[in-house]
Structures are given as structure tokens and as C-alpha cells.
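Q: Convert this sequence to C-alpha cells.
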Amino acid sequence: MKKELLLKEKELQLAKLKAHVDKSSVCSELYNKIVLEKAILKKEIEDAQKNKFVEGIKNLLPRKKVLICDYFKK
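A:
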């Protein structure tokens, strides 16, 4: 819940800075920093929502390896 609020806050900050990105290098750097922070938050939220048990089972099951020649077969 807290991370969702932080994500909304980052979106609001980005909206405010978007108009000033071209005018100042400081604003541009701050905008890029906030975009990066937003992406990190989004990834953390996605990871928290994943079912850890199912992900563990997926890692244990053997996967069929794809060879380069498989892409050229018809």
C-alpha cells in the first residue's frame, strides 16, 4: 500500500517536471532520477505480488532448451 502511494507521488512529480525538462539541466537530471525511482518501485510492487511458491516450483521444473536451429525450422 505504501509503495503504491509512493508510485503515485512519483507520477505527480514527473507531471510537474515535464514542462521544465527542456529549460534546465538540473530539472532534466531530476526528471531522469525520478523516472528511474519510479521504475524501481514498479518492479518492487510486481515482485511483491508474485506468488513465491509458484515461482519456486517453476525454477525446479526442467525446461526445454531452445537451440538456434529451432528458430529456423518450419
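Residues 37 and 43 are 10 Å apart (CA to CA).
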